Amino acid sequence: SFELTQPPSVSVSPGQTARITCSGDALADLYAYWYQQKPGQAPVLLIYKDIKRPSHIPERFSGSSSGTVVTLTVSGVRAEDEADYYCQSSDNNTVVFGGGTKLTVL
Amino acid sequence: EVQLVESGGGLVQPGRSLRLSCTTSGFTFGDYAMSWVRQAPGKGLEWVGFVRSKNYGGTTEYAASVNGRFTISRDDSKSIAYLQMNSLKTEDTGVYYCTRVTGEPHWGQGTLVTVSS
C-alpha cells in the first residue's frame, strides 16, 4: 500500500486563493482525485485524474500535479467553500485517501 | 443521470451481520468497478474494498481492516452492488458510501451503520 499526506488545516480570507497539497511517492505514477465534504453531507467530486473537473463544478476549483505532489487550488474563495477536502488515489489493488484538510474561510 | 442509492444500514449488535445494497441507474453497471468507502463519526474517509467488472474477472480487493469479514459482490442483471458485513465490531460504525470507481467517479449519499450492544 501507499500513503497520502495532507496538511490538517488551511486558512484563507474571502476572495483569496487557497492551495491544498497532497503528497506521496505513488502520485508520481498514479492519478489523484479531490473531494469536498461539508458537515452531514456526502463527499462531492471536485477533480479527477489530476486535472479534470466535472461539468457542474465551478472553474475556480482546479487541480495540478508535479512529481509526488498534487495541489487543489480554490481561486476567489467564498464562505461556502469552508469544508473538509480529501485527496485520493488508487492502484490496481487498493484505494487510499489522504487524512483530509479543513479549509477555514476567515 | 448517474445515481447510486445505498440501503440496508441500521443498528446491529457486535458479532452480528448486515448486508448493504447499492442500487444504481443511469449507466451501464456491468462496465464499471464498484467500491465501498466508509467514514466513522468525526473521522476521515476509509476505503473498504471494491469489485472489478466482469471484464476484469469480477474479482475483489479489501482493506486489511475488513479482510476476511466483509464481502463485496455484484449483480449485473439488477445493477446492484452488495457489501456483506460479518462479525461486526463497534469500530465498524459509520456511514458507508457506494462509489463508481472508474472513469468519472460517482458516489451515493451513504447509509449509516451503527454497531452497538
Order of helices and strands of chain A: EEEEEEEEE
Question: What's the helix-strand series of chain B?
Answer: EEEEEEEEEEE
Class of secondary structure makeup of chain A:
mainly beta
**Sheet bearing the most strands of chain B, described?**
7 strands, mixed
**How many strands appear in the DSSP assignment of chain A?**
9
Number of strands of chain B: 11
Radius of gyration of chain B: 13 Å
Q: State the helix count of chain A.
A: 0
Shape of chain B: globular
> Biggest interface in this structure?
A-B, 22 and 18 residues
Outline the low-pLDDT stretches of chain A. Answer: none
Query: What is the distance, rounded to the nearest whole angstrom, between the alpha carbons of the first and last residues of chain B?
Result: 40 Å
What percent strand of chain A? Answer: over 45%
Instruction: Give the strand content of chain B.
Output: over 45%
Topology, please?
The complex is a heterodimer of chains A (106) and B (117).
Chain A: E1 9-12, E2 18-23, E3 32-37, E4 44-47, E5 61-66, E6 69-74, E7 83-90, E8 95-97, E9 101-105
Parallel strand pairs in A: 1-9
Antiparallel strand pairs in A: 2-6, 3-4, 3-7, 5-6, 7-8, 7-9
Chain B: E1 3-7, E2 10-12, E3 18-25, E4 34-39, E5 45-51, E6 60-62, E7 70-75, E8 80-85, E9 94-100, E10 106-107, E11 111-115
Parallel strand pairs in B: 2-11
Antiparallel strand pairs in B: 1-3, 3-8, 4-5, 4-9, 5-6, 7-8, 9-10, 9-11
